[in-house]
Write a structure and sequence with these properties.
Helix content: 40-55%
Largest sheet: 8 strands, mixed
Distance between the termini: 39 Å
Number of strands: 10
EC number: 2.3.1.274
Order of helices and strands: HEHEHHEHEEHEHEEHHEEHHH
CATH architecture of one domain: 3-Layer(aba) Sandwich
Structural class: alpha/beta
Shape: globular
CATH topology of one domain: Isopropylmalate Dehydrogenase
Strand order of the largest sheet: 3-10-9-4-5-8-6-7
Subcellular location: Cytoplasm
Keywords: Acyltransferase, Cytoplasm, Lipid biosynthesis, Lipid metabolism, Phospholipid biosynthesis, Phospholipid metabolism, Transferase
Family: Belongs to the PlsX family.
Number of helices: 12
CATH class of one domain: Alpha Beta
Pathway: Lipid metabolism; phospholipid metabolism
CATH superfamily of one domain: Isopropylmalate Dehydrogenase
Length: about 325
Amino acid sequence: MGGDHAPKEIVAGALRASEELGVKVLLVGDPQQIKAVMPPKTTLERVEIVPAEEAIAMDEEPLNAVRRKRKASINVAMDLVKNQQADAVFSAGHSGAAMAAALLRLGRLPGIDRPAIGTVFPTIMAGKPVLILDVGANVDCRPKFLEQFAMMGSIYSQYVLGTDTPKVGLLNIGEEDTKGNEQALRAHQLLRDNSLINFVGNAEGRDVLSGEFDVIVCDGFVGNVLLKFAESLGGVILQILREELPQGLHGQIGTALLKPNLKRIKQRMDHAEHGGALLLGVAGVCFIGHGSSQAPSIFSAIRMAKEAVDNQVLERLHSQYEILQRGSG
């Protein structure tokens, strides 16, 4: 029930995922509203509607709303994961409410002080994405939180994104070890001293999309600004391409010839291709989507959630209990 285009686009993306990915999808919310946006001949073989009496609005204070509205759709969805009736949860609604519900219903993983929202960015190297975390869960971070983010991000990068030995960077204002504020300096020391992290140094803003790093850690304030900027940049470039392509008959012929290339460019730059961001550090697979998410984004998020489950990301994090404990010290 969450998101600017709910429930129509949420349902459309979920139905596509059930057909193309072979997953069973539980649609949590108001049954009447959900059924009203379903195509007439929808088969419910892999789709189930789970009733929820309430929903949390974007203008509500997340923690209070989650506690007050016990039967809100986000709480019902989290309980499905907690009770092992679902393997993962996705929400395009209030991200703060999703995080609060995850913490209250699922709890944190052992050794983790703060969960982090990790999102995948494309880079100039085709097929080589970079994972950025945190992009909004923690506005203020202690250095040890950043160390924990690096640990979790490395595991996700290795087992879901397929990176053999993830190279970790710390987002900073310079590549030199002595650059940055007190938080950055202390975090740099922790990352450098942790032999279980392949820390390769500071990453400046221009390095984020260079492909030189597989995981980049930062606090949620900086990460969220970076996320919103990167998303708008992709849209700007695509719009410029549309405007600058030649007009007239020659332009139409040229555009037709370039269409496959333009489609690939869009796929590499469009945030809808990545769908959502994983909430790492909670005891369940939880993906958070944009409020503006439409059907393609929903489909992509469910695909990513399936990959996280198939690759046993949560179990691998559990198995790293001692490592994570050491990382949080």
